[in-house]
Amino acid sequence: MRIKIENFCLFKESRTLRATCDITLGKTVTIHQVKIINGQSGLFVNMPTRKVGTQYEEICTILDENVKKEIRTALLEKYSQCNKSQQGEDDF
After folding, report:
1. What pLDDT sits at residue 87?
2. 3-state secondary structure of 77
3. Which residues pair with 40 in a beta bridge?
């Protein structure tokens, strides 16, 4: 499946929120505000959520494990690339 990543934004000042972006899956659906979070076990991808009482619920849930893996891989690769290029800019 083709995954198009748009509006990728790094958050250098946040300890947990590392990046946000929008993704388009094929030509069928766009998901806004996908997050890359730095958790206790490392980086993970979080779909958009909304707060209901004291809990957070996903607005969009990817049911196919293969698609989840493709999204996670694409976003973490993009994060790694952007983070490396950003660090190179900070060296000057």
Report:
1. 66
2. helix
3. none
Tell me the backbone φ, ψ of residue 49, rounded to 5 degrees: -130, 165
Question: What is the spatial distance between Cα 65 and Cα 47, in angstroms, rounded to a whole number?
Answer: 14
Give the pLDDT confidence score for residue 6 in this predicted structure.
96
Q: How far apart are alpha carbons 78 and 71 in whole angstroms?
A: 11
Q: What is the CA radius of gyration of the chain?
A: 14
- At 2, is the secondary structure helix, strand, or coil? coil
Read off the tokens for 36. Answer: 């890359």
Other Cβ atoms less than 10 A from the Cβ of 78: the count is 17
Q: What is the pLDDT of residues 37-66, one digit of tens each?
A: 999 999 999 999 999 999 999 999 999 999
Contact 38, 18 (CB under 8 A): yes
